[in-house]
Amino acid sequence: MAAEKDPQNNHKLDRRSTKCSVFNCQEKSDSSQPVIFNPDFFVERLRHEYPQAFVDLVLSNITRLIDLPGDEFSQLSGEAEPRVPSSSGFLRSFNFLKRKEKGVIFGATLTEEGIAQIYQLIEYLSKNLHVEGLFRVPGHSLRQTALREMLNSGAEIDLETGDFHPNDAATLLKVFLGELPEPLLTHRHYHAHLKIGELSRFDEKGNKTNMPDKERQIEAFQLLFMLLPPPNRSLLKLLLDLLYHTARNQHVNKMSALNLATMFAPHIIWPKNVMASDLQGNIDKLNNGVAFLIRYSQKLFKAPAYIKEYARLYFTGSKTLQSNDDLTLCAGAKNGPVAGVTIDSLPSPMRKIGGEVNNTCSMNSDETPSYTEAALKELFQQVTNMPESAKKKKLIKQFEKQPLLTPSADSRTPFSRRHWRSRSLGGIIKRKVLGSQILTEKENRLQNPLPHGSLDGQRSENKICKGD
Fold first, then answer.
1. Comparing C-alpha atoms, which of 346, 58, 95 is closest to residue 189?
2. What are φ and ψ of residue 454, in 5° steps?
């Protein structure tokens, strides 16, 4: 018997790990690619290795999109306790008593283990999207009680046996969400959701219109979801995926995105222990906001492109740049790491990071890119091979004045920024690196100089020797 039980336990563990891995793997653009080439890899690395800097970066971009007063921003950033509409009296006392009866899964703080159990319901429902009135028609109370106890005990359930109806699983999923200690979208994010729902387009004169700005709303939700606790973000993605596909089958199940939002908004975004009258006319905003999340769920769990680029620059910028493409990116980072993010606009922790990126992209006195050294060697060799002339002598003197620039000084400290900017040699090096033909043209002019007494001839030679 023991030999038979072990494979079952192993299978159970393997299946659970597979469930949990869904949260991370579904966001990859190409599962065949190594994770190092996934742009989101650097975003997640920034989140885990520099959490405060990551939060500051995301917050700075959220406030660029929506206007959050000081107290609402403090709530979103975690500096102040969330203040949301609340109820009082009998309702609060009743809910307090209900929470005392919480189990391992239902009523407990959201964990990966709890998500793995609830995923059994989500997986089963995803195979029964044809059921009419799914999530609206309640299930059987006795079957729900039995299913709840099985989930609370941590059991693995075979829902395909026919013992339970899809409506049982659908109702129990809503119950689970409704009994979480706080809404799935969290109390801290409540005001931000209301503000994102108010984003609208502007007309040609810059006046605000009544037309929603869907692009900005999607971008704002992408940023806001990056601030969710990992378990909340994982379950939210699974839930919205399920509701998205349910709405796509509304011709069969009669459940549109708005219908589904009406069913789920009280469970995932309404503050705890409130009634409809406590929301002060925000019910339509909340329902429409959840409907928007369902319709555009496939776009909301990706980091905005500029966040990906900033995270990539932060980590890869610490190494020597290898291509002109990298140089172009770093050149843009000097004025602002990425679109929508500027160093001056970021909080102090991110300014430090931005400074590190910019300093890395620029040429330091301690670090000279190999392509510059190669250009100097090539330039020195060409100067040596030039016919004897006044120009050649002057150029060699320039190299001798700066011995660190000569190829024989490979083992010495690279030249400083002051020498790089010097007018005497900087212009020549710049033209060489850029592949200019100016050097050849000036060499031809030297071989056919103007008369010795000509003032213009003297100016031309002086100009060439200065590298201008």
1. 58
2. -75, 130
